[in-house]
UniProtKB/TrEMBL annotation:
Gene Ontology terms describing biological process: transmembrane transport
PANTHER family tied to this protein: SULFATE TRANSPORTER (PTHR11814)
Protein name per UniProt: SulP family inorganic anion transporter
InterPro entries to which the protein is assigned, alphabetical: SLC26A/SulP_dom, SLC26A/SulP_fam
Length: 518
């Protein structure tokens, strides 16, 4: 763990941004799930400190997940909260077992077009949901991501909801000023400045938002934001008051069969969402570091077991927090740990200060995170790769927007598999030779005549097993068709080969650019 401390200058500022993103989502997801805001904070702290410490991922951040809101809400209603906590604890045990039996291998089998479609859809949902908060409508919890909203509207019609309510001019001024400030702060003239470039834009806008609201109080009290328009962190008199509010599972319900049904459902859905997020984060990692899916399931299992024991919600790796972490320049997993510590400090030490932050300021931050996830260049990139990748990408986005995260991914996966089967690719390595000569390991991998997405996992695992310092030849001389996903794995490997002191030689492997439409 100490080896990560060398990245403190990058990790701590990033953790502040992640904290600001995670805080309203922890509170909002808890409320949307029918739990207390305190439960959201507990799971956020555990996701940051415990799972962040145990995880092998350098950039992912865990916390309560929007994708589980519907399941959690129904379970709490049917079982009661203490019995629900028992199900959460058992779900964690199941996840731990899944990691021990190495079930995480399924994470290798998600097509990149589906993963990128998931990211784009989450970005669109973030933007559309936060527009409501920008205009001062805070009737729906900020962490609520489902298509059908609690107020009876949906993701699309919900954007007109603020215009059916009295105008909240204070929120509009704060929200749009903060959004404009974030856009300005992303410009090269600011980022390259010796002083201004060191100030995280997310930190700046929450301070500016609170200051503007204070100015409203002195200049025009009618514009002052209060109540639901501000962050509402639970306030405690001290550590004792904090611990007194912790709830524990109802172990008397161990004989209730419904508890096990909920536990298995939570474990499977949470594990799938985690594996999807981990795969997505690894693809975005500029250093192309790979996370052990099985180690991640074990970390998540321990985290969820603890969360259930002390009154928290189910936890998964969360792409929104992880993206904010990556975009803020984090280099190691300590950023996730720091953000968990900040969440704990926020509720114990200075909740009064946190509760001065306007929701519109946080909405501006999340809109920028959403834009980075669904940037226009992503759509152009997928289109240029051809219809067999663009169609699953678009279908995944549409399905997620119209249903939820996991249903949408399943639909996209089915469509992706259809295109794979239509191409009738057979997956195998023609030969794989490894020998040692003069104290140096030589590896010669010959690709088969047809290499498809189905070879991605085997190829990735084989490359991960190559010893550092080897001489490696990846030979595509006899390959007629090689899928983009396999080529992406090879070139991701080439980017880290130098760090691993591997002498890599590629023979007749097509360039990534050759797959794009001209």
């Amino acid at each position: 763990m100490f080896k990560y401390l060398k990245h403190f200058k990058q990790d701590f500022p990033a953790s502040i941004v992640v904290f600001l993103v995670a805080l309203p989502l922890c509170l909002g997801i808890a409320v949307a799930s029918g739990a207390s805001p305190f439960a959201g904070i507990i799971s956020g702290v555990i996701g940051g400190i415990v799972i962040g410490f145990l995880s092998k991922s350098h950039l992912s951040v865990s916390g309560p997940a929007a994708g589980l809101v519907t399941i959690v809400y129904t379970a709490i209603h049917d079982l009661g909260y203490e019995t629900f906590l028992l199900a959460v604890m058992l779900a964690g045990v199941i996840q731990l077992l899944l990691g021990l039996v190495r079930a995480g291998i399924i994470g290798h089998f998600f097509p990149s077009s589906v993963i990128k479609g998931m990211l784009a859809a989450i970005g669109l949902i973030l933007i559309m949901k936060q527009v409501q908060h920008m205009f001062g409508y805070d009737g729906d919890p900020m962490g609520e991501f489902s298509f059908f909203q609690p107020d009876g509207f949906n993701t699309f019609t919900g954007m007109i909801r603020p215009f059916q309510e009295p105008v909240v001019m204070g929120a509009i001024i704060v929200g749009f000023f903060c959004l404009a400030l974030m856009i300005l702060w992303a410009r090269p003239m600011i980022q390259n400045h010796k002083v201004l470039g060191r100030i995280p834009s997310a930190v700046l806008v929450v301070i500016v938002g609170a200051v503007i609201n204070s100015i409203f109080a002195a200049v025009n009290p009618e514009l002052v934001l209060g109540g639901s328009h501000l962050v509402n962190v639970p306030e405690f008199d001290g550590w004792t008051d904090f611990t007194d509010k912790i709830k524990t599972p109802n172990f008397a319900s161990l004989g209730n069969s419904q508890v096990y049904v909920v536990a298995i459902t939570l474990a499977l859905v949470a594990s799938l969402e985690t594996l999807l997020s981990i795969e997505a984060v690894d693809k975005m990692d500029p250093h192309k570091r790979r996370t052990s899916q099985n180690a991640e399931l074990r970390a998540q299992g321990i985290g969820n077991t603890l969360s259930g024991l002390i009154g928290g919600l189910p936890i998964t790796a969360v792409i929104v927090r992880s993206t904010a972490n990556l975009e803020s320049g984090a280099q190691s997993k300590l950023s996730a740990v720091y953000h968990g510590i900040l969440l704990l400090i926020a509720v114990l030490v200075f909740p009064y200060v946190i509760n001065l932050i306007p929701m519109a300021s946080l909405a501006a931050i999340l809109i920028m995170v959403g834009y980075k996830l669904t940037r226009p260049s992503l759509y152009k990139e997928q289109f240029r790769l051809g219809w067999d990748r663009f169609v699953p990408f678009i279908v995944t986005i549409t399905a997620i927007l119209m249903t939820d995260l996991l249903k949408g991914v399943v639909v996209g996966l089915v469509v992706g598999i259809f295109f794979i089967l239509r191409a009738n690719y057979k997956v195998t390595l023609q030969s794989d030779q490894e020998n040692e000569k003069d104290g140096k390991r030589d590896v010669h991998i010959k690709l088969s005549e047809h290499v498809s997405f189905l070879n991605k996992a085997k190829l990735q695992l084989r490359l991960d097993q190559i010893p550092n310092g080897s001489h490696v030849i990846i030979d595509g001389t006899h390959t007629k068709d090689i899928d983009y996903d396999a080529v992406e794995v090879i070139y991701n490997f080439s980017e880290v080969a130098e760090e691993r002191q591997i002498n890599l030689e590629l023979r007749d492997i097509p360039e990534i650019e050759s797959y794009y439409r001209k």
